[in-house]
Design brief:
Number of helices: 3
Strand content: under 5%
Largest sheet: none
Helix content: over 70%
Number of domains: 1
Structural class: mainly alpha
Number of strands: 0
Distance between the termini: 21 Å
C-alpha cells in the first residue's frame, strides 16, 4: 500500500487510475488497493519478461 501511494503521487498514469477509482465513489484505501494490484501485475510482468519500467 505504501508503494502504491508513492507511485500514485509520482506517476501520472497511476494518478489517473487512482482518480478514476475515486470518481467511482470508492474510498481512498479502496482506490489505493486497486492501484496496488495494478502495480503488482506490472512488477510481475517486468520480472517475468525482463521489461524496463517506463515512467511516462
Amino acid at each position: 500500500m505504501n508503494s502504491a501511494h508513492n507511485v500514485v503521487k509520482n506517476n501520472s498514469t497511476f494518478k489517473a487510475y487512482y482518480d478514476a477509482k475515486m470518481a467511482e465513489d470508492r474510498t481512498h484505501y479502496n482506490a489505493l488497493g486497486h492501484c496496488a494490484g495494478k502495480l503488482v501485475r506490472i512488477i510481475y510482468k517486468m520480472l517475468t519478461d525482463k521489461v524496463e519500467f517506463n515512467l511516462d
